[in-house]
TrEMBL record:
Biological classification of the source: Bacteria, Pseudomonadati, Bacteroidota, Flavobacteriia, Flavobacteriales
Keywords per UniProt: Transferase
Domain of life (superkingdom): Bacteria
Name of the molecule in the record: 3-oxoacyl-ACP synthase
4Fe-4S keyword on record: no
């Protein structure tokens, strides 16, 4: 089977990550429980007339994908695979609100058309005139991993040579209100740099788009090799360590082979214990990394973790702001990522230096 490489990346997040020439040099800190992305100049990528008609999630996805393609120095791909938890939720809210406000009459279809989850992938394909395989996964907090798995299978079996994959989610006012009511979002405003000190339930919610060009052909500009991806719908807290060990054994690795582990800690006192199970036991002597204090929590936040790990493997630099422990590693060859959300949809991703 062919190997799978990440050859281009593009990220729009709550940090200035759309600029690939920098790597978390300047950090934005937040003191709120819901944070938004740092917007690039969308006019540089999308004609203003078209951008006005696009939902925020679409604009983020289109621009992040174009940054990734430019980074890989290619103009088109064989396939586009997108992961999203909520899709273009703002337009969904607009349409539902219009149904209620207008008593189900005189509705314009625009918001409904733009609210479907596959709108982002469709808009990217229209812009590129890509007529190949186009699929969107809506698998909650493993939506991005599902997209990555699909791409990996196609590339390993030489069904495609170059695929664009990504994860994208946006805020919606009504959805945010509901998450606050059920304590999925912290009730108090929290300093984003101190989320691990939080002793309350809920997370700081964010949004963003992270896209990657993956190929079965290694390039000089490649960031990392994708070794394996594994997802679980449910895992007990006591089973996480065993699952991690089995995942490594399946890939002929052990704990000592892992140079860093990237964890999805979000400050939720009730569910960060899953990460603590690994950081306090199996990987207590391993360099530990976290990232959701930079991007917030959302269904495809793990794609930001993959962006971070890819940059670390290529630059061999680990920004101080993402260090979770005091270990000091100078050479990064193999990185393991683990994520879960509220005790469900667990994922392990293994990346290796090219």
């Amino acid at each position: 089977m062919s190997a799978v490489y990440i050859t281009g990346i593009g990220s729009i997040s709550s940090q200035k990550t759309y600029d690939n020439t920098e790597f978390l040099k300047e950090i934005n800190t937040y003191t709120d429980n819901v944070i938004s992305v740092v917007n690039p100049n969308y006019k540089e990528y999308i004609p203003p007339a078209a951008a006005r008609r696009m939902a925020k999630g679409i604009k983020m996805g289109v621009v992040a994908s174009r940054i990734a393609l430019a980074d890989a120095n290619i103009d088109n791909v064989d396939a586009i695979i997108t992961g999203t938890g909520m899709g273009c939720v703002r337009d969904s809210e607009k349409f539902v609100s219009a149904i209620i406000d207008n008593n189900e009459q005189y509705l314009t279809p625009t918001s409904f058309i733009q609210s479907t989850h596959n709108t982002v992938g469709g808009q990217i394909a229209l812009g590129l005139q890509c007529k190949g395989y186009n699929f969107t996964y809506v698998h909650a907090s493993v939506s991005f991993e599902s997209a990555l798995l699909d791409a990996q299978l196609q590339l390993e079996n030489d069904e495609a040579n170059t695929i664009l994959i990504g994860g994208v989610d946006e805020h919606g006012d009504h959805t945010i209100t509901i998450h606050k009511l059920i304590n999925h979002i912290k009730s108090e405003k929290t300093d984003s740099t101190k989320i691990l000190d939080s002793k309350t339930e809920g997370a700081i919610f964010g949004e963003g788009a992270n896209f990657f060009v993956v190929s079965n052909q290694k390039q000089d500009s490649s960031y990392a090799q994708v070794i394996a991806v594994q997802t679980y719908n449910t895992l007990a807290e006591t089973e996480v360590s065993h699952a991690a060990q089995l995942f490594l054994e399946d890939n002929n690795l052990n704990i000592d082979n892992i140079d860093a582990i990237v964890l999805g800690n979000n400050g939720d006192v009730k569910y960060d214990t899953f990460y603590n199970e690994l950081s306090s036991n199996l990987f207590k002597d391993t360099q530990q990394v976290y990232y959701k204090h930079l991007c917030g929590e959302f269904n495809t936040a793990s794609s930001f973790g993959v962006w971070l790990a890819s940059k670390v493997l290529k630059t061999q630099e680990l920004p101080e702001v993402v260090r979770l422990n005091e270990k000091s590693t100078s050479n990064f060859t193999t990185i393991l990522l683990y994520n879960q959300y509220r005790g469900e949809n667990h994922s392990f991703t293994l990346l290796r230096k090219c």
